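Quick check before the chapter quiz. The format below is the same one you will see on the exam, so make sure you can read both the input and the output lines.
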Amino acid sequence: MQPSPSRAQIALGASIFIVACALALTVAGPLSRQVPQFSPGLVIGTISTLFSAALTLLFVRWDGISLADIGALPESGSAHRLAVGFAIGLLLVALHSSLQAALGHVHWVRAPDVGLAAVSVSLLTYLALACREELAFHGYPLRRTAPRFGLWTAQLLVAAVFAVEHVLGGWTWLDAIAGAGIGSILFGMGSLATRGLAVPIGLHAAWNFGDWLRGGKDSSGVWAPVVEAGFEDNARRVGRLSYGALFLAATLFFWLWRRGLSRKAGLPWLGTPGADVA
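Here is the expected output.
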């Protein structure tokens, strides 16, 4: 019988995995410029997802475990759970926008020249990027470290690395910690609670896609935000605080789900509450 790996071995394997996925992302960037007829984000997301999937297969074989052990095995209900995660993500966007409108003096106007083609490409891009990030952080690394280090320690470690990757991608430390870091906690809890990646991928993709729709990304969305004059600082403050509150509330929901408190509520669409980590 193969001896159980030590905490140091688990940590080393997770670290190598994350670094390898990050290197794949840096390689995908230049490759995307070789096919200018396609969206760079979609090409980067597709290439890095395929590489992260291949790494996952390699590492689980190396460890002598299965894809199911880290929640990366597609199942008959995966598409359904992906849709549920997507619906939850869009709900978070809607709630966040409502709070911004009510408290931040923000409203949205229709942006010109953004049609169905742009919306479709954006949806596919954010879905591909979500697949890559969930595989790279909340699949093998999180699911391997959580049983040995504890749920919250593993969550915080993965969230810290997730934030650092975003800083290296050009984000400020504040945005990386208060944005990507908090997001990582939610997506990671979704992975642990449902023991799979379908729900967090849908949730992650929907949040980014919904944020793009309302003009929250660098590129133009379907709508553009307009802040009333003199309320710019207030709008940023409301945006950050409401984001944190909503994501932490959603994290609490998945944490309660994981503890099995929702079994009596009859919510089979999320899957079996996780019981494989402390």
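If your answer matched, good. The mean pLDDT is 90.
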